[in-house]
Design brief:
Blueprint lengths: L1 H10 L20 H8 L9 H24 L13 H11 L8 H13 L4 H41 L8 H10 L23
Helix pairs in contact: 4-6, 4-7, 5-6, 6-7
Amino acid sequence: MLRRRSQTSVDDTPVPADDPKPQGKGRPTPKRRDAEGRRRQPVSAPKDRKEAYRAMRAKQAAERDRARKGMLAGDEKYFPVRDRGPARKFARDWVDSRRLPSQYFLPFSLLILLLTWIPWPAGQREVVLYWVMLTGWPIMMVGVLFTSVYVSWKVKKEATAKFPNEPMKGVGFYAAMRALQIRKLRFPPPQLLPGGRPVPPKK
């Protein structure tokens, strides 16, 4: 009797109108077809091949422009694989912050080529070619060779001490080849000026 009476009192208790607990969702369950229809977004497909080609070229141009800006800003995400890593960045900064004899190799070679094309008088031509070809050119070649060996050894030594856990394969050769390039033609673009000052941002 006691158990039946207590059960009846519990079940007959009315639910107050301001009960904070909701008794249901308060709305009908949407059908699966209606839910999928709301998730679908309209797709604007190109009308013809020309429009698709123009859209593709515009997208590629935007990606190239973004990559170019990233490379100029020094963002390694846009660099080729051979230019990535702290050791390669150290090699670039080491070379770019110095004036090395090897960076004048290409301008000097161009000057020699121009001197050989000038129609010198008969007596002067032999003198010019003698001093340029037999004296200036060998001296320049020895300077370039010595500078390349020194840059390769020095950069690899300092990079190994600074980044002991980084792979150093090809770092010295990478620095030596960069030192042979004209400064304005180096890629990635230099981030340091000779002397170690940062390159001012372009306006």
